[in-house]
């Protein structure tokens, strides 16, 4: 990280040319064991019935857990990769924004477990997700 760059600037730059950029994910807060971002509910993230697509919601949740874990490890020595995700979709959203808030539950040497709640603009729970991340030593 350069002198005047914030963590949010760095992780926002990582979105360039990725699915996160296509989905319009914007990072709002990041600290050790916690990350928050928002995603628009628009033509990029809805399904044919005009509702937020569950897959887009899961992509937001896994993105938050992945970046959250990446911020907790020495990235020169380790990669983090998703191993398991479960999601329960509670309510639908047709427009506006959803906000994902990820909190680490377990920080082990080989795995991290995250809880990610996705809420609508009124603060209603849309989905709740549990994500297990593997921490893998780089081999090169």
Keywords:
Thiol Ester Dehydrase, Chain A; single chain; 6 strands; 6-stranded antiparallel beta sheet; alpha+beta; 140 residues; globular
By DSSP (H or I, 4+ residues per run), the number of helices equals 3
**Can you tell me the residue ranges where pLDDT is under 50 for at least 5 consecutive residues?**
none
Distance between the termini: 22 Å
User: What string, H for helix and E for strand, traces the elements in order?
Assistant: HHEEHEEEE
Question: How many domain units?
Answer: 1
Spatial order of the strands in the main sheet?
1-2-4-5-6-3
Global shape: globular
What proportion of the residues is helical, as a percent range? Answer: 10-25%
Radius of gyration: 15 Å
CATH topology: Thiol Ester Dehydrase, Chain A
Indicate the mean pLDDT: 95
Number of strands: 6
Largest beta-sheet details? 6 strands, antiparallel
The CATH homologous superfamily is called Hotdog Thioesterase
The CATH architecture: Roll
CATH C-level class is Alpha Beta
Approximately how much beta-strand content do the residues carry?
Answer: 35-45%
């Amino acid at each position: 990280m350069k002198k005047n760059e914030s963590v949010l600037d760095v992780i926002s730059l990582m979105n360039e040319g990725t699915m996160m950029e296509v989905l319009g994910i914007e990072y709002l807060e990041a600290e050790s064991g916690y990350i928050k971002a928002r995603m628009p509910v628009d033509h990029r993230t809805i399904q044919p019935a005009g509702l937020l697509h569950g897959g887009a919601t899961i992509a937001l949740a896994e993105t938050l857990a992945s970046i959250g874990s990446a911020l907790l490890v020495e990235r020169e020595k380790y990669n983090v990769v998703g191993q398991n995700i479960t999601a329960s979709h509670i309510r639908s959203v047709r427009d506006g924004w959803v906000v994902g808030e990820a909190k680490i539950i377990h920080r082990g040497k080989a795995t991290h477990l995250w809880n990610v709640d996705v809420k609508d603009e009124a603060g209603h729970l849309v989905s709740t997700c549990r994500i297990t991340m593997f921490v893998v030593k780089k081999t090169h």
